[in-house]
Design goal:
With 403 residues, this protein is mainly α. It contains 16 helices and three strands. Among the domains are: 48 residues; 229 residues, Receptor-associated Protein. Helix content is 76%, strand content 6%.
């Protein structure tokens, strides 16, 4: 499908409309416009911007989507027609890429499609949870409330993910510092020690010799190291795109030491928060499980949710269906069972989400606090070991000369 920018006259209002649409050809774009009640005036194919910096600067962030969703919800809640609300939001949007998508959504809505159907054409931007909530809001007549829920859901997900990324940032920085210290010692200090021993016709100690050999290898065969690392990285990336690789990555996340429990709580918070939002909007239990499983972004847990959905379809309660699954933390089916007994499953799922979000915050703080001294010790041991391996032989030489 190609993308076309167009100017067309609305046959109903006689107004000239500028927007974009997708079609196989220019003629196909003209036919679509005529079918939607427009008279085409100008149609031009848009070529995708290949500039990396331009694409990066035009990236649609979570904040962009949240602002767009809240603005649209406010305007619809104020009683404005959907088409007018979209046009108003378009005027207030700064992100060029999002502007283009809103234009396409507006054209689709004005062509007779529902808002959820129009969003569904852009699944790279609007996930299944977003589309399901909008669809439920259209059916129930509470579109503005559904959009507000969508925005709140996006904000909570983004906040939780941001906290985990922040907890992982510091260790990564320290690891780069350690590698920098090692590189500095190997390429600047070690060659000087080797030269000193050669001048004195002495044999290097084993540890120092290993460091000298490593430095010489890297100096003369750096291209080979880069080639091996590049090839290995390529094959690892390709493997992680396969079904086996995706399963390995998702299982590793759930079981990795220290961070595994944190990832499990993150997924449980996302599972229950999304489930609460969907159920409270009127989405059916089976649809909720299907959409929630896909939104977790973990194939291992998604299969667990799908197995539970099959059991629910067969007549079992959701709490019973989730209980035997390995990676579903016990509090989830326990609280859902209380919700089933009281008829307030969505409320109980919201409480579970709150519990895990709070535990996750506390765990992230604890990891951030405890990992700093550990990494400082590692840095000190690495740097101290290398300095010791270099300086001790020199002291031995000085003592030998003085004697």
């Amino acid at each position: 499908m190609k993308k076309f920018a167009y100017e067309a006259r609305d046959q109903a209002s006689n107004k000239v409309v500028k927007s974009t649409l997708q079609a196989d050809s220019e003629g196909g774009a003209a036919r679509l416009l005529i079918e939607q009640g427009f008279t085409p005036l100008k149609i031009k194919e848009q070529t995708e911007d290949k500039n990396f910096i331009a694409r990066l600067s035009g990236r649609i962030t979570t904040k962009d989507k949240v602002v767009f969703t809240r603005q649209l919800a406010t305007l619809i809640g104020a009683g404005l027609p959907l088409s007018q609300s979209l046009h108003t939001v378009l005027e207030q949007t700064q992100n060029k890429q999002l502007q283009s998508i809103i234009q396409e959504i507006t054209a689709s809505v004005e062509g007779g499609k529902t808002l959820s159907e129009s969003f569904a054409k852009h699944t790279a931007i609007f996930d299944p949870v977003f589309i399901a909530l909008v669809s439920a809001g259209e059916i129930s007549g509470t579109l503005d409330e559904s959009l507000q829920r969508v925005a709140s859901q996006q904000e909570k997900d983004a906040a939780t993910t941001s906290k985990i990324k922040s907890a992982l940032t510091y260790p990564i920085i320290v690891l780069f510092v350690i590698m920098g210290v090692m590189a500095f010692m190997l390429f600047t200090v070690v060659p000087q020690v080797e030269k000193l021993y050669k001048d004195l016709k002495k044999q290097l100690p084993m540890i120092t010799q290993v460091m000298v050999d490593s430095a010489n290898f890297l100096v003369h065969y750096w291209w080979l190291v880069i080639m091996v690392v590049g090839i290995a990285s390529y094959f690892v990336v390709q493997y992680l795109k396969t079904d086996a690789g995706i399963k390995f990555k998702d299982t590793f996340k759930l079981n990795v030491p220290i961070f595994g429990q944190m990832f499990r709580k993150l997924y449980m918070a996302r599972l229950t928060r999304t489930g609460q939002t969907l159920l409270s909007t009127g989405v059916s239990m089976l649809d909720m499980l299907k959409i929630t499983g896909a939104s977790l972004n973990n194939t291992v847990l998604e299969k667990s949710i799908m197995r539970a959905a099959d059991k629910v379809k067969g007549g079992k309660a959701l709490s019973v269906a989730l209980q035997p699954e390995d990676y579903i933390l016990p509090l989830v089916p326990q609280m859902i069972k209380i919700g089933e007994q009281s008829g307030r499953i969505d409320e109980m799922m919201g409480k579970v989400a709150q519990v895990y979000e709070e535990e996750l915050d506390e765990e992230i703080r604890n990891i951030s606090t405890s990992i700093e001294p550990i990494l400082m010790v590692v840095l000190a041991v690495v740097a101290g070991g290398m300095v010791g391996a270099i300086l001790l032989p020199i002291y031995g030489l000085v003592n030998g000369i003085s004697v």
